[in-house]
Every structure is written in structure tokens, then in C-alpha cells.
Amino acid sequence: MNLDKRNAERRDAKWFVRSEKLIVRGISLLAAVLVLAQLALHFPAARQLLSRTEHWEGTRYVTE
Known about the structure:
Blueprint: H1 2-40, H2 44-50, H3 53-56
């Protein structure tokens, strides 16, 4: 019985480590996507694809 409990604890610990790695990878991926999206908003062509708000505003964005 003690051996079964130890095996269950090891299995649970392995599951926790795997799930924690997946969560960290997911957060890292979302942070990278957020940074890329923010950088893309600096370019008018990408801004038109990412945001429709500018089309509804009174003054259009003009590059110099």
C-alpha cells in the first residue's frame, strides 16, 4: 500500500512539472505575440489589419 502511495505521489509530481512547463511556455508565447502586435501597430499597413478604430475616427493617420 505504501508503494502505491509513493508511485501516485511521483506521478502527481511529474504531472505538476509538465503542466507548469506548459503554462510557462503558453505565457511566454502570449507575451511574445503581445510585443509583436504592439510593434506592428507602428506601421500603417499592419495597423489597418489589426485595428478598425482609425477608420471611424475623424482624422486619418498621415505619415510624414
